[in-house]
């Protein structure tokens, strides 16, 4: 694991016990609805969730699919395991870095991630891994916060990004849509209901 990845992992390990509480207000106000919408598009027999975190997406898992979920933070994954056992969620959990997935090419019908690529040190490398393990004709579904298209707001986001990154391990100025477009997907769709800074992206391999 690179030095950057180790630093980000350590930040999430530190935040793991408090993570659900820290995001509780936004989760109830906005994120939960967006997660539900994202997961409503998941399809196929085998689904990979990247960046499972504390298991916030567990309520939206489809009943008719095998779910594999990974995270690179041992402490976040432990929180997810506790929630899995408490709520009896059918999911295979694994400790893994999205930048180096330990899965064969063309393994999953849907690969899905929510608010993950803000914290991946090399996002294009991670996205290429998602493309690699996705089956031909399969889909990658992403819910991500991105750099604003408003120049003044973008300047402020860039200014405060080092502070946010050092505190929480997440970047607030990523241009994730451009990173997805740099991968060889056949088609890329952005949900028209997406806001300026939160995008729902569907990419077809």
TrEMBL record:
Enzyme class, broadest EC rank: transferase
Molecular function GO terms recorded: methyltransferase activity
Gene Ontology terms: biological process: methylation
One Pfam family from the record: Methyltransf_11
Record's keyword terms, sorted: Methyltransferase, Transferase
Domain Methyltransferase type: 48-141
Transferase among keywords: yes
EC number in record: 2.1.-.-
CDD domains with a match to the protein in the record: AdoMet_MTases
Designated name of the protein: Class I SAM-dependent methyltransferase
């Amino acid at each position: 694991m690179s030095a950057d990845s180790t630093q980000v992992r350590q930040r999430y390990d530190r935040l793991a016990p408090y993570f659900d509480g820290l995001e509780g207000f936004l989760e109830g106000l906005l994120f939960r609805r967006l997660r539900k919408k994202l997961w409503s598009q998941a399809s196929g027999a085998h689904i990979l969730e990247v960046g499972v975190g504390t298991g916030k997406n567990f309520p939206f898992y489809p009943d008719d699919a095998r779910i594999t979920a990974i995270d690179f933070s041992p402490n976040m994954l432990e929180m997810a395991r506790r929630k899995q056992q408490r709520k009896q969620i059918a999911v295979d959990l694994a400790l893994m870095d999205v930048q180096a997935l330990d899965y064969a090419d063309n393994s999953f019908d849907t690969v899905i991630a929510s608010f993950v690529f803000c914290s991946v040190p090399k996002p294009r490398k991670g996205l290429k891994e998602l493309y690699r393990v996705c089956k031909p004709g399969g889909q990658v579904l992403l819910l991500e916060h991105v750099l604003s298209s408003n120049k003044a707001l973008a300047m402020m986001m860039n200014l405060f990004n080092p502070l946010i990154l050092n505190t929480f391990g997440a970047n607030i100025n990523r241009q994730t849509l451009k990173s997805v477009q740099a991968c060889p997907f056949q088609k890329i769709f952005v949900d028209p209901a997406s806001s300026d800074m939160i995008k729902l992206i569907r990419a077809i391999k």
